[in-house]
């Protein structure tokens, strides 16, 4: 079984300012076709709109109905 990198990310809704920390993970093997990205826990007020194997296309929905990607393409990765 593949090891998984785990990390926390602060989410902030650009519309209402709702904030919280999400717990996420993805495969640690860089040779794989996709990282099998997964959000393990979302903060209160945030919901999964569309799951994806990639952070950039995983869509979060805030309780105010604003939708946005988990990670923007221009955002720096750690």
Task: Work out the number of β strands.
Answer: 6
Which regions contain 5 or more consecutive residues with pLDDT less than 50?
Answer: none
Alpha-carbon distance between the termini? 24 Å
SSE ordering: EEEEEE
From the alpha carbons, calculate the radius of gyration and give it in angstroms: 13 Å
> What proportion strand?
35-45%
Shape: elongated
Percent helix, as a range, is under 10%
Structural class: mainly beta
Instruction: Report the total helices.
Output: 0
List the domain count as a whole number: 1
Q: What characterizes the major β-sheet?
A: 3 strands, antiparallel
- How is the largest sheet built, in terms of strand order? 1-2-3
Overall residue-averaged pLDDT value? 87
């Amino acid at each position: 079984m593949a090891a998984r990198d785990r990390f926390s990310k602060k989410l902030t809704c650009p519309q209402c300012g709702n904030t919280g920390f999400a717990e996420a993970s993805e495969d640690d093997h860089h040779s794989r076709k996709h990282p099998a990205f997964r959000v393990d826990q979302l903060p209160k007020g945030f919901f999964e709109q569309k799951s994806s194997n990639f952070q950039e296309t995983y869509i979060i929905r805030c309780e105010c109905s604003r939708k946005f990607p988990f990670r923007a393409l221009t955002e720096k990765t750690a």
